[in-house]
Each structure stands twice: as C-alpha cells, then as structure tokens.
Amino acid sequence: MGLQDVKVTWLGHATFLIETPEGDNLLVDPWLEGNPKCPAEYHDVEADAILVTHGHNDHIGDIFDAAERCDGPIVAIFDLTTWLGFKGVSEDQLVGMNKGGTVSLEDQGLDVLVTMTDARHSSAFVTEDEEIVYLGEPAGFVLEFSNEETLYIAGDTCLFGDMEWIGELYEPRVAILPIGDHFTMDPVQAAIAADLVGVDEVIPAHFGTFPLLTGTPDELEEELEEIGDGDIVVTALEPGSSTDW
Predict the structure, then answer these.
(1) How much helix, strand and coil, in percent to the nearest 5, is found in the chain?
(2) Is 232 exposed, middle or buried (0-12, 13-18, 19+ CB in 10 A)?
(3) How far lies 111's CA from each of 143, 164, 217, in Å?
(4) What are the CA-CA distances from residue 120 to residues 137, 146, 168 (Å)?
(5) Is beta strand 201-205 parallel, antiparallel or unpaired with respect to 233-234?
(6) Quick one: average pLDDT of 142-148?
(7) SS3 of 102, please?
C-alpha cells in the first residue's frame, strides 16, 4: 500500500506536507499558526512549493508568511494567484492555472506534475473590514511524482459523480479526502468517493478541528465495509505524524 518514496505528514485540518521522492516538500493549504490542530514545531515550516485548493481562511490563513519561507512555486486557481500578486507575493512564484489543466514544476526545480481537478464547495476570503473577496472556484489536485506514483487531493468538496473520471484518467492509488461533514463530505460520501476514484488507500482530512466536524476515520472504515470496499485502507494520521510507507 501507499506511495513508494513519498511521505505525507498531516498538520491538522486540511494542511499537509508532502515529501517527494527527491526530498522536496510541498505544503498544501497553509493554515499553520492559526490552526488549533497544527503542532507548534510546524508553525514556521519551510517548503519548496505551496499548493492551495481554495481561498477560505482555514486553508490560506498563513499563506503570506508561508510564501516568504518558500522560494518555489505557489500553485492555485488563476483568480487566487492573481489576488496573491495584488497582495505582494512575487509574480515569479505564482503559478495560476484552472481546472483540467496540468502544469509541470520542472522549471522550478521540482519533478512533479500538478493537475487541477474539480471540487464542489465555495471560495472567498473575508477581510478585516468584513468584506468578502471572491477568489475563484475551489479545486482539487492530482500529483504525479517522478516515479509515476499518483496522489489525489480532493480539497474541500461534496461527493460528485465525476470523481469516477478522475480515477479513470489519473489512476491515483491514494486519496486525501475530507470526512468532517457540515462543510464537506461526511464519511458516507467519502466512502463512495473512494470507491468511485478506485483508490487503495484514503487519508482522512478536515475532521476533528471543531465540534461541527463530526465525521471520524472509524466511521469511514465502517462505511467502506458497508458498501463492500473494506479492502480500501484508511490511514488516519495524528497531527504532526506521517505515513510510514
């Protein structure tokens, strides 16, 4: 099981640090110091690239500080990277793209292909003046590493049928899926999503941060058994812990 020579570390909520086969670190949705589940030793984490699924505060709450500690690319939907540029992030770092597109990070020194997929959610940032800033649509990512291992990061989303096409097109073996309910899929929907995508393993995300997020990894395992896909492994990480593939 797992992805050969790839390590995934959960920093709580929907924030992840992904180490590539070459030892580069990809930071996904940098909500660090403000994240009640992120261990303190990761508040100043450095990364070689940053990937952002959408513009809610619990995904970009520390984007500007994280960007200053990152010399590599910041990948997100075009609207969000444009806003980051307006806010002072270096244009040289910003890689704006859109759903269905694939970008190679080879020019930035990273042997990773990033494909942006659909996600069904919302995406806006609330300013200190209580203004809502539209930041494009939410998205997911498929990451293909140099050894042809593939990881699907669903982002914040509900269940949708085209997840089956994501599985057919990119054949990821591992998926990071939200399970918390209320704002995203619950364990019932996440189990169906795992089945549609056809993965061997699921890493749960977006649960346990607040009382509203009631879904649990144990419930996900039960639902996978219920739909007959008990062979799909649920790898439930603790904040600050990593896969041991």
Answers:
(1) 20, 25, 50
(2) buried
(3) 10, 26, 32
(4) 8, 29, 19
(5) parallel
(6) 98
(7) strand
CB-count burial class (<10 Å; 0-12, 13-18, 19+) for 206: buried
Strand 16-19 relative to strand 25-28: parallel, antiparallel, unpaired? Answer: antiparallel
Rounded to whole angstroms, the Cα distance separating 87 from 106 reads: 26
Strands 139-145 and 132-134: unpaired
CATH numeric code, 7-234: 3.60.15.10
Start-to-end C-alpha separation, the chain = 7
Q: Is 47 helix (H, G, I), strand (E, B) or coil?
A: coil
CA-to-CA distance for 17 and 24, rounded, in angstroms? Answer: 10
CA dihedral 180, 20, 37, 181 (to 10 degrees): -10
pTM (two decimals): 0.98
Over residues 172-225, the pLDDT tens digits come to 999 999 999 999 999 999 999 999 999 999 999 999 999 999 999 999 999 999
- Residue spans per domain, the chain: 7-234
